[in-house]
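hiii so um. not sure if this is the right channel but i have a protein structure encoded as tokens and i wanna go backwards to a sequence. like what aa goes where. can anyone help
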């Protein structure tokens, strides 16, 4: 008691004489108070105001000392944005503000919304962004891998990773560390599709497309002849087509570069048909990329056998026609550089994923 009394007296003496240091005064800047069974702490130091609630007074004091030390050392970073935004809320904000700016339009937005819906089934979305660790991402990866294929897991991880990148660069959370960096991604090399049109599938597909009606028969032929993506086909305007030169100009492609696609005789005939009664700025199709996909799936389901019996073509995606077209370009003896200029692939490794040569064709070439 005597020692405590002396200390208080000395402090009052120093304060009245102005000898007490600023650092010593600032030890009392944190205010801790109890409300019911919680302890609230307020730190107001060097124009920085922070508050938090804890279950014990000890935790409150430890936190206050840590914040004060960081402020005094000039290393304090205000993390309140990332502390108060959960991953779930961040995902919602991402699909509302970021997804619409990406290529792919409405179809891509729907895919990302669906992906977010699946991510939000896992417990890590309840964590504030600042609390999400690599171990949480790894746990999500392993849990999701039990439900879907490797490529779906990689797409989900890519979305989360991009969210943290955007939050760091554009949402004022430049202190965030991306927890997806360094996490092992599932291998997808063994899952790459190698689907091509087999036997009489092309004939059956085109017959069903003719019965379905509209522009889908011409779209299918154009895809097989040019290796264009469905979004590229849907985006063609009459002014982009030069039938005399035998080219289509694609000003905006998936990899953010423009390119010319060279046309076969059959492709020129299809485009000439599609461009009838169109103005220069008109799209040659009245179908969106999503509409092409839906129509193609319906056509596959309506296919019949050569004898006329109902026989749907299964496991065939519209994008597989790009595989088919790329492989046919090689089978026509075009060089790698010529094929890459047609397809728009930037590396041989990417091109290789779309090239599936038929053994019989190689056998005939060998003689």
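sure thing!! here u go:
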């Amino acid at each position: 008691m005597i020692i405590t009394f002396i200390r208080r007296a000395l402090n009052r003496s120093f304060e009245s004489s102005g000898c007490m240091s600023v650092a010593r005064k600032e030890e009392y800047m944190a205010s801790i108070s109890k409300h019911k069974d919680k302890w609230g702490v307020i730190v107001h130091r060097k124009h920085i105001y922070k508050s938090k609630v804890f279950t014990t007074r000890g935790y409150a004091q430890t936190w206050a000392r840590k914040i004060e030390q960081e402020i005094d050392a000039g290393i304090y970073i205000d993390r309140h944005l990332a502390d108060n935004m959960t991953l779930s809320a961040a995902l919602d904000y991402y699909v509302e503000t970021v997804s619409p700016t990406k290529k792919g339009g409405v179809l891509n937005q729907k895919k990302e919304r669906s992906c977010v819906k699946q991510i939000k089934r896992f417990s890590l979305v309840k964590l504030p962004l600042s609390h999400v660790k690599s171990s949480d991402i790894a746990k999500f990866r392993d849990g999701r891998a039990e439900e879907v294929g490797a490529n779906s897991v990689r797409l989900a991880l890519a979305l989360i990773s991009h969210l943290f990148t955007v939050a760091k660069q554009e949402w004022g959370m430049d202190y965030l560390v991306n927890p997806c960096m360094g996490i092992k991604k599932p291998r997808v090399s063994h899952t790459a599709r190698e689907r091509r049109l087999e036997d009489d599938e092309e004939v059956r597909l085109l017959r069903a497309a003719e019965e379905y009606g509209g522009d889908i028969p011409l779209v299918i032929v154009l895809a097989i002849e040019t290796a264009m993506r469905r979004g590229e086909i849907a985006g063609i305007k009459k002014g982009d087509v030069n039938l005399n030169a035998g080219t289509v100009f694609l000003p905006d492609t998936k990899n953010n570069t423009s390119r010319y696609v060279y046309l076969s005789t059959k492709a020129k005939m299809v485009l000439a048909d599609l461009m009838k009664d169109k103005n220069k700025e008109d799209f040659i199709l009245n179908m969106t990329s999503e509409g092409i996909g839906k129509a193609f799936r319906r056509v596959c389901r309506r296919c019949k056998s050569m004898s006329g019996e109902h026989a749907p073509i299964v496991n065939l995606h519209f994008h597989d026609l790009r595989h088919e077209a790329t492989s046919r370009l090689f089978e026509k003896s075009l060089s790698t550089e010529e094929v890459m200029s047609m397809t728009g692939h930037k590396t041989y490794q990417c091109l290789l994923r779309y090239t599936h040569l038929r053994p019989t064709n190689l056998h005939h070439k060998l003689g």
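oh and Residues 45 and 68 are 7 Å apart (CA to CA).
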